[in-house]
Design brief:
168 residues; alpha+beta; 3-stranded antiparallel β-sheet; two-stranded antiparallel sheet; 7 helices; 11% strand
Amino acid sequence: MGKYLNILRCAAPSCSSDQSDKCDQRYTEGCGARLEYNRQETFCRFGRFGRTYEALEARCPDYVEPARWQQAVEDGRRFLAQWGEQAAALGWTTGDLFGLHIVPNTPTPSYRRLSRYDETGLIWLLRGRPVVALTDATAAIQNAASSITVYRRDNKPALGPLGDSLDD
């Protein structure tokens, strides 16, 4: 899979035209399918989300399964290549895209950061599915069965104020 991503990167427009001649020198195989690349180019290509993506790719966050992290890295690369500029223009933040629940001081043994949907960014929820439309408030995700899942940037389900109850 890595060699195909390398080919796509070489064909994709980069920040300066003289970089395309050096494509084979910039990308080398790393651990498994992970590719090493020029930091400046990543930041340039992915705009304001470049540094966050680079941090995500560098290491698996605590309390996230490695398979989910690897999938998020692939999904993040694909999303930012296709939708990164539009997401930035529409006001999406790095938290909206890559956010995770903040680890409590003493997490339980069963704690998983991705269990809190209201704190989870879009990239973590893609799981290999493509985004087919993006607005300032939503992202439409294409499912395998040709149905669409709508991710809402705001207005995610969350608990109400402390003491709020249906019994009141």
